[in-house]
Amino acid sequence: MGDATVRTPERRAAAVPHPVTEGAGQGPLRRLRAPRRPRLWFEILLIAVSYWTYSLIRNAVPEQRSQALRNADWIWRVEQQLGVAVEESVNHAVNSVTWLIIGMNYYYATLHFVVTLGVLVWLYRGHPGRYAATRLVLFATTGVALVGYYLYPLAPPRLMNGGQFIDTVMVHQTWGSMASGDLKNMSNQYAAMPSMHIGWSVWCGLTIFALASVPWVKVLGLLYPALTLVVIVATANHFWLDAVGGVLCLAFGYTVAAAWYGSLPYALPRVVAARRGAWLPTRA
User: By CB neighbour count within 10 A (0-12 exposed, 13-18 middle, 19+ buried), where does 211 fall?
Assistant: First the structure.
């Protein structure tokens, strides 16, 4: 009995790893890469400045209208040759149901931001150890998308010359699209490839699926990017190949985060110790 009493604390101590701290033997780079508790004021400032910078750069890309229209015609021809040019049929079918297309217009204009910010807040509050790495995925994805806008100007289907696509925001006079109506001069209309509606929504969906504990919430996480794909096609804002571009950008984002932190964000510990530079290996 006495022997068991002595060994139990030892076994318990061995079973629970000690927090990693900024102790001796750790270089500055390793300390920088260690997960740490996010600071609210810094995160708000970072997100605000980052989105402002993204919008500024995206809108500063020269609107190469002729090249963007040629690229759109080429993508449309390739899809037709492959037998996968479904965008026009979806656009017309959904537009024939007024309440549905109006709902999709507002979906396109709002949820892109609302859901993404909501997931960031959820990560900040519930998964602080995984927050920075998962946020890095989003930032790297968005950053590489800017390269795509420069290298491959692309007109959305609704702006194609001689096309039969319906600009659903113009037809139904709904608000919110930065590429239609009175707001079109505030946004680069020829930055459709890659689609960040897809890049961000897949990021949201994967994050929710990987970290949510409630099964039906996981299902909603997977449904969100699928529905977003239908919306961007139905509103004629993107070809479905733009969605492929968004997913490729997201893959790049995950690669950057995995290289920096040494693992995928969702495999990092959930809880971060209050002490600077320390984290607790709690994966629940």
Answer: buried
